[in-house]
Design brief:
The protein is mostly helical. It is built from ten helices and no strands. α1 packs across α3 and α2 runs antiparallel to α3. The longest helix is centred in the C-terminal third of the chain and has 19 residues. The model has no long low-confidence stretch (mean pLDDT about 80).
Length: about 140
């Protein structure tokens, strides 16, 4: 997508200011329901991602302390899965929340692959079904 078109979709002049891009995106996102207008929602998301122009999210994590110990392939696949989900809740996460989600899922997948699964007790199993984030997951 051309940069000019990206900023036309967002309705702002071309800028590198992350706050300006994010504020405008969130404003437009509130008026765009993914169920009523899936193409508009997808186009808006693509414009936002292009405007930020940060490259793959896992590149930032790879440079961090925790990123150096995580499996790159798992981290990349987690990012790809998250980006494929058309949920406004994912798209409105802060950068830190988004990175935290990637880290936690990557650690969980790595532990599962190494058969390091923690067994849950019955009380935890009952409470988790009522948890809002459990429903999203």
């Amino acid at each position: 997508m051309e940069k000019k078109l990206v900023f036309q979709i967002l309705g702002i002049p071309e800028t590198k200011d992350e706050n300006t891009i994010r504020e405008r995106y969130l404003t437009l996102l509130k008026g765009t329901n993914p169920e009523d207008n899936p193409e508009g929602f997808k186009r808006l998301r693509e414009a936002y991602e292009e405007a930020e122009d940060k490259g793959p999210p896992y590149q930032f994590l790879k440079k961090s302390s925790i990123g150096r110990i995580l499996n790159d392939e798992i981290m990349e696949r987690v990012v790809d899965c998250i980006l494929a989900v058309d949920s406004a809740r994912f798209l409105t996460l802060t950068k830190n929340s988004y990175m935290g989600l990637i880290i936690h899922i990557s650690i969980a997948v790595n532990r599962i692959l190494q058969n390091e699964v923690i067994e849950a007790d019955e009380r935890w199993k009952e409470n988790i079904r009522e948890d809002e984030d459990y429903g999203l997951a």
